[in-house]
UniProtKB/TrEMBL annotation:
The lineage of its organism: Eukaryota, Viridiplantae, Streptophyta, Embryophyta, Tracheophyta. InterPro entries: AAA+_ATPase, ABC_transporter-like_ATP-bd, ABC_transporter-like_CS, P-loop_NTPase. It comes from the Eukaryota. The keyword Cytoplasm does not apply. This is ABC transporter domain-containing protein. One of its GO terms (molecular function) is ATP hydrolysis activity. Keywords: ATP-binding, Nucleotide-binding, Transport. Residues 357-383 are annotated as: Disordered.
Length: 383
């Protein structure tokens, strides 16, 4: 699954005119979106995950229309508070997207709260990656009947692509499913690549940042290793670290910027004020194939099918649902998929080995109603 990886190897121009592919292109987008990320103690994480089982739904027996009746949440009241628009990080409103003749998204609507851990599930090719790309601002939603599908990020409507906008305090980065590491570079060099290339930070400073960032994704003592010496999951974490290490102000990457002067000074307080420190990841989105992994990682699931969100519910409802279709068909098919295509023994630690797509880094609003620490289910050491 996970088409967000290979198909997204587009180049982008970085500061100083160098051209990179994969995660660095995403990074260049990320640096545009966030100029001053101020960490707060109460930051929480959003996890979004997608998985793509070859479900047998869609057959005559289980057409999508049946699932439209399931567009409801079961027992949401057990964990959700009354809606308050100010508390949403992401909202997709009636989003459409076609590629040529293929209608992929046909009116997708959902909301993700600050601090909420949400997974998007659905068959392969159903448009999960497309949703993430639209949220990330890499794709624009189609106009439908002269109306745009609307994407709101922290209550602000996204117009156009990410490069058109600067949503203060918000950073969005992508980590590809194929880890996109440079094989001949060490972990330290991979993670710190952008800083080595484009900042005037010293070796020691970059090295320290690399170390902290690796720790934030649950890796310690691997700085001198080559990618070939890492497991698949570790590679994903390294890729994620390479993404979030740029949770540094643009000023640190563009030394000529005025703010850089502040940043490069020894004043620790100012530095911390200007820099999003590793380990304060507010939110991120990942993908995974395995339902058991999703269960550990997210609190709520959105089920995308035939271009629409046709079911949503608390994660455990997906398997414990009293809905006979969900219970009998979806979970069964997922189990089959897991055993035949992935293997039954993937542990939660491998979460990022089979996952890793999109990170949204943001400070939650001051008045957010969610308690610090929520969600409880962030994967492994990324908590
Ligand atoms: N840029 C593009 N041009 C043309 N078709 C595209 C493009 N991007 C995606 N598609 C098509 O849109 C459909 C949805 O793709 P998408 O990658 O969003 O699916 P997905 O649900 O993430 O799949 P998977 O789980 O297999 O990764 C697929 O049929 C894909 O071929």
């Amino acid at each position: 699954m996970a088409s967000l990886s290979g198909s997204m190897l587009f180049p982008a121009t970085l500061p100083h005119g160098s051209t990179r592919s994969t995660r660095f292109s995403i990074w260049s987008a990320g640096t545009i979106t966030s100029l001053c990320y101020k960490p707060r103690n109460e930051q929480r994480k959003v996890v979004c995950a997608c998985m793509a089982p070859p479900w047998n739904i869609g057959s005559d027996e289980y057409p999508a229309t049946k699932f439209n009746n399931l567009y409801k949440s079961e027992h949401l009241e057990t964990v959700m508070e009354p809606e308050d628009d100010s508390d949403f990080l992401i909202e997709c409103k009636n989003v459409y997207k076609s590629f040529g003749e293929k209608d992929i998204l046909r009116g997708v609507s959902f909301k993700i709260r600050h601090g909420e851990a949400v997974g998007i599930i659905g068959p392969s090719g159903t448009g999960k990656s497309t949703i993430l790309k639209i949220i990330a601002g890499l794709l624009a939603p189609d106009k439908m009947n002269n109306q745009d599908g609307e994407v709101y990020i922290r209550g602000r409507k996204r117009d156009g692509l990410i490069s058109d906008q600067d949503i203060s305090g918000l950073r969005i980065g992508l980590v590809f499913q194929s880890a996109a590491l440079f094989d001949s570079l060490t972990v330290r060099e991979n993670v710190g690549f952008l800083l080595y290339e484009n900042s005037n930070m010293g070796e020691e400073q970059i090295s320290e940042l690399v170390k902290e960032t690796l720790a934030a994704v649950g890796l310690k003592g691997v700085e001198d290793r080559l990618p070939s010496e890492l497991s698949g999951g570790m590679k994903k974490r390294v890729a994620l670290a390479g993404s979030i290490i740029c949770d540094i102000t643009k000023e640190s990457i563009e030394p000529e910027a005025k703010e850089m002067k502040r940043f490069s000074k020894t004043d620790k307080a100012r530095e911390e004020d200007a820099v999003g420190k590793p380990g304060k990841i507010a939110s991120y989105m990942v993908v995974a194939h395995q339902h058991s992994t999703i269960g550990r990682a997210v609190d709520r699931l959105l089920f995308l099918y035939e271009g629409k969100i046709v079911w949503q519910g608390i994660t455990h409802e997906f398997t414990a649902s009293t809905n006979p279709i969900v219970q009998q068909k979806l979970t069964k098919a997922l189990r089959q998929k897991t055993q035949t295509e992935i293997g039954p023994s993937i542990s939660s630690d491998d979460f990022l080995g089979t996952a890793g797509r999109l990170a949204v880094l943001h400070p939650p609003p001051k008045d957010s109603k969610h308690k610090p620490g929520f969600p409880a289910k962030a994967p492994g050491n990324l908590r």
